[in-house]
Design goal:
Layout (H helix, E strand, L loop, with lengths): L3 E2 L4 H12 L6 H17 L4 E3 L13 H5 L13 H4 L11 E9 L4 E12 L3 E20 L9 E3 L5 E3 L2 E23 L2 E14 L2 E14 L6 E7 L4 E5 L4 E4 L2 E7 L2 E3 L4 E12 L9 E3 L2 E13 L3 E8 L2 E10 L2 E8 L7 E9 L10
Parallel strand pairs: 1-5, 2-13
Antiparallel strand pairs: 3-4, 3-22, 4-5, 5-8, 6-7, 8-9, 9-10, 10-11, 10-12, 11-14, 12-13, 14-16, 15-16, 16-18, 17-18, 18-19, 19-20, 20-21, 21-22
């Protein structure tokens, strides 16, 4: 259970929750005015401005049982509806619309994590996606001392002449919730190269305090040689400003997510294997909190491996920034169900299940 006293700083809440959650047809001409408007609006805000570590951490927890079972090494393999999160350039590989839902509860059901997404192909080489993420700790008790003028544990006599010990009591509950809404767009330029963009709206609330932010991602997916796949996702490429209602502004600096994958057919086993490797390169000075760090630059790694049997059953192994991951999936007609296990030495195990539904109807198939 999490119990909060009044007037705890927001930065303390964020870093506390980071430790809990650590396991884990739009043209350039249309985007530019929005980006420019955001930057001008950010300049107009009053109050303190600071670069915020972990302010975007809830968006690093990953989505989809397949990707998570591979340790989050998915930037070069994301060709389904979850590409809106991992690499929007991969959305162009969809032949039919897809929907995915995922719900998890971590750490004795303290943290609830929900994800839902929809992706639709249109034309011969474009796709749109919409995704929503919520991470929340609900029903957090907020306490007050019975006699705020005295220290905790002090003995005093109340107005009725009764001797009491000054103890805290719960007078209300609050939620600490973070939301992200992604609007994704992908375009295929050739059989070996595609690019994509995300526009994402962020919403955060801690009790009576709240913040809004708007950010952009730019991504690419290519096959430079043979079946080798390279995925790049420049997240928060313009930096993202979180504007809190009490006047504070927090800056989320860009992150580069880079991935490599090499699917290999195994005819003797009636399937194929896909090894993958991802790097998360950040510029916010994470130091010891990252696997590798030098000055403000830090690097975290994700390793993954998948064996898929006749596109029906899959087994997966991975390493999510050093934490063991594993999973399995079964592909039924129009429905794929994936399970992921992620271990953690200090915070325990996490189990995640996702369901992906493909609308395989001729009228919804990608046009030629």
């Amino acid at each position: 259970m999490i119990i909060l006293f009044e007037n705890i700083p927001l930065q303390f809440l964020r870093e506390f929750k980071f430790k809990l959650s650590e396991t884990n047809m739009i043209s350039t001409r249309k985007i530019f005015p929005v980006v420019l408007g955001l930057l001008l609006a950010g300049a107009a805000f009053a109050g303190e401005t600071r670069t915020a570590k972990y302010a975007n951490e809830f968006l690093s927890l990953g989505v989809g049982g397949r990707a998570l079972g591979m340790g989050g090494a998915y930037a070069a393999l994301a060709t389904d509806v979850t590409a809106g999160y991992w690499n929007p350039a991969g959305l162009v590989n969809l032949e039919y619309p897809q929907i995915m839902l995922m719900h998890t509860e971590q750490f004795d059901r303290t943290i609830k994590y929900d994800y839902g997404s929809l992706a639709i192909p249109f034309g011969a080489n474009r796709s749109l996606g919409l995704s929503l993420i919520r991470l929340g700790v609900d029903d957090i008790p907020v306490t007050r001392l019975q006699n705020p003028a005295l220290p905790l544990g002090a003995v005093y006599v109340d107005d009725g002449g009764v001797t009491r010990i000054n103890r805290p009591y719960i007078f209300r509950t609050i939620s600490d919730a973070e939301y992200a809404l992604f609007l994704s767009y992908g375009v295929k330029r050739s059989e070996r190269f595609s690019f994509g963009v995300n526009a994402k709206v962020l919403r955060k609330s801690v009790g009576d305090n709240s913040a809004w932010g708007l950010g952009f991602d730019v991504a690419a997916l290519c096959r430079p040689v043979g079946d080798l796949r390279l995925g790049l996702n420049f997240q928060d490429i313009t930096t993202t400003v979180l504007a809190w209602n009490q006047g504070t502004r927090e800056i989320i600096v860009p992150t580069l997510k880079a991935g490599l994958a090499y699917p290999v057919a195994i005819p003797m086993l009636n399937g194929y294997m896909s090894p993958a490797l991802d790097f998360d390169i950040r510029f916010e000075g994470r130091d010891y909190a990252a696997q590798l760090a030098a000055g403000p630059v830090s690097v975290d790694t994700h390793l993954g491996w998948e064996y898929q049997f006749q596109e029906v059953f899959s087994l997966r192994l991975g390493s999510d920034t050093g934490r063991f991951a594993a999973g399995a999936g079964i592909n039924l007609p129009k429905l794929q169900v994936d399970y992921a296990f992620i271990g953690h030495e200090d915070l325990g195990e996490t189990h995640r299940v996702s369901a992906r539904f493909t609308i395989e109807a001729a009228k919804y198939r990608r046009g030629k």
